[in-house]
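Late entry, protoporphyrin IX containing FE complex.
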Amino acid sequence: MKLGTVPTIVVSSPETARQALRVFDLNCCSRPSLEGSKKLSYNYRNIAFSPFDDYWKEVRKLAVQEIFNIKRVHSIQPVKYEEMRKLIDSFSESASTKTPVNLSETLLSLTVSVVCKASFGVSFQDTVLNNERFNELIPEALEILGSFSASDFYPYVGWIVDRFTGLHKLRERSARALDAFCEQMIDLHLKKDKEENEDFVDLLLKLEKDQVVLGHEKFTRNNVKAVLIDILLAGIDTAAITMTWAMTELSRNPRLMKKVQSEIREKFGDKEITSLKETDELEYMKMVIKETWRLHPTTPLLLPREVMTEFEINGYTIPVNTRLQVNVWAIGRDPDAWKDPEVFLPERFVDSDINPKGQYFELLPFGGGRRMCPAMYLGTKMVEFGLANLLNRFDWELPEGMKAEGMKMEEAPGLTINKKHDLTCSC
Ligand code: HEM
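Prediction complete; structure with ligand written out below:
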């Protein structure tokens, strides 16, 4: 189809996704230069929006080696446990006073603390973003990134529309707030004691100081900030969204809630779940997570790709500069790929090899091919650990007077799709 003046292909079946993300991945793994992402990525210098070039390859490799590898993910275990502990204490308090808990909010604050401590070495309590504004900032930036920007579809004139709709102003405001956050993060690191553990921010600052060239480009302060914002935007709400949707589906399906809780409690009982490794054997819980990703992928359209060299799919020639969107949401509900696709049924994964690692094109929560999420292991572990703890310790149910049928299931707009109305439960 043509969106404005831009030829766009929407891939919405597993077989076509296989062609695009595996067979012809190299032909179409660049990103288009979109107005919405330009400002927030300091001119496409982050990982997610960078075109396919040597700079992207080197920055992505660096991030994979330094923060997303399995060893590093396990090294954040104490951080995760500490944050989880705080959350459990606050839930215990709510349980004793019978006050319902806003799970959407609390799960987001959990992932904020974990990602920030793990990647930036600081907690938000010490930053400019330690206020209510922060809770709005990340979802707002993601909504801007996911919203219709006329300048991306009508080059030359679209910017006029964006000024009228207020999008331009919103974008500027959001970029300024994120920039202020990065500045403070960098300041904290420049001031800190040399003896302290080196983290990812120190590493990026060292690249800047040593004037390292990545790809063909000198790594400057803007590059540091672009990568920090990348991690902030890509890393924080995705895991929280998955946990929120999983808890939503479980609280409207008490049978499944009991089943997954029995599995966890049989294994752990009164023992606390302290390590990320311990969730490996929770087979049914992992099915619940896969089923959540099938029906509620965090990034339903993946990120847009741009065709670099012409190729052919299903007899159609796809020319250079075509924009490609992969509709993972539709693929997860494709009746040719899934039986009773609208039903939340984790048991469909019993005796099935399907996993979310980008090799089964009917389930692509992390995308696939060269642009696939580099933090799949970290993301999965955050979700498994968070859910296992919540479900082990508390009996969750809908607040008094609310019925499963009356639950609001609408999705909020944006690049990542969260539940529109906060999930509140009693425990
Ligand atoms: C449950 C958690 C997560 C999910 C479901 C998820 C999902 C995704 C998806 C769907 C994409 C786009 C793939 C594509 O366009 O083909 C992506 C890209 C990305 N994700 Fe994740 N993600 C998660 C966690 C994280 C975390 C924790 C981080 C970092 C701390 C992260 C960093 C990134 C980055 C940097 C990219 C851009 C990759 C590129 O363009 O080369 N993600 N993620």
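The chain has one domain: 2-425. Will revisit in the morning.
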